[in-house]
Amino acid sequence: MVFKKILIPTDGSDYTRPAVKKGLMLAKALGSKVTALYIMDQTAFINIPMDAATLNIYSLLEQEGKEAVEYVKNMGDEMGVDVEVQIDEGSPSKKITDASKDYDLIVMGTLGRTGVSKLLMGSVAEKVVRHANCPVMVVRAKEDVV
Fold first, then answer.
1. Is the sign of the CA dihedral 144, 72, 10, 29 positive or negative?
2. How far is CA 18 from CA 13, 15, 23, 47, 106, in A?
3. Are 138 and 111 within 8 A, CB to CB?
4. Beta pairing, strands 105-109 & 5-9
5. Domains and CATH numbers, the chain
6. What percent of the chain clears pLDDT 70, i.e. is strictly above it?
7. Of 118 and 56, which is predicted with more confidence?
8. What is the mean pLDDT of the chain?
9. CB atoms near residue 55 (< 10 Å)
10. Which of 18, 91, 112, 141 could form a disulfide with 13 if both were Cys (CB 3.0 to 4.6 A apart)?
11. H or E segment at 121?
12. Residues 6+ away with beta carbon under 8 Å from 101
């Protein structure tokens, strides 16, 4: 199978950095194009009224997203890999799964959600592996990151 288009979802956390590196190394070796994708998780805002505090949080998430995809873009530039950046809103697992039809491979980390949040929401990586329309490579973070 040829992987011409690789999707690298990121939440900007240290948990995703090993996956970013592996995905870019693979793209370089195969001459693939990469899309770095950050999803602003709107599930956190479902029951919160839109007020100034919520808008501030939204702005912070938007800034986090820009930094997350720019990290991938900059690393790609250093490695000579063509990286397109994309920021979207919604449920991360659904958005990544929906996007999977347009890619040959998804390379992702175990996104940074932990504890009760992970228990309630489920693992994004697990949901993507189960429902994606293309192969998914999940790269675990090293123990010293956790």
1. negative
2. 10, 7, 8, 34, 14
3. no
4. parallel
5. 5-139 (3.40.50.620)
6. 79
7. 56
8. 86
9. 10
10. 112
11. helix 115-121
12. 133, 134
127 SS3 class: helix
Give tens-digit pLDDT for 71-106.
999 999 999 999 999 999 999 999 999 999 999 999
Q: Which residue has the tokens 């992987």?
A: 3
pLDDT tens readout for residues 22-52: 999 999 999 999 999 999 887 666 666 666 6
d(CA 146, CA 141) in angstroms, rounded, equals: 7
The two tokens of residue 6 are: 């690789």
| Token duo for residue 75 | 């690393």
Tracing tokens 């994606």 back to the chain, one arrives at: 132
Please report the sign of the dihedral spanned by the C-alpha atoms of residue 128, residue 110, residue 115, residue 37: negative
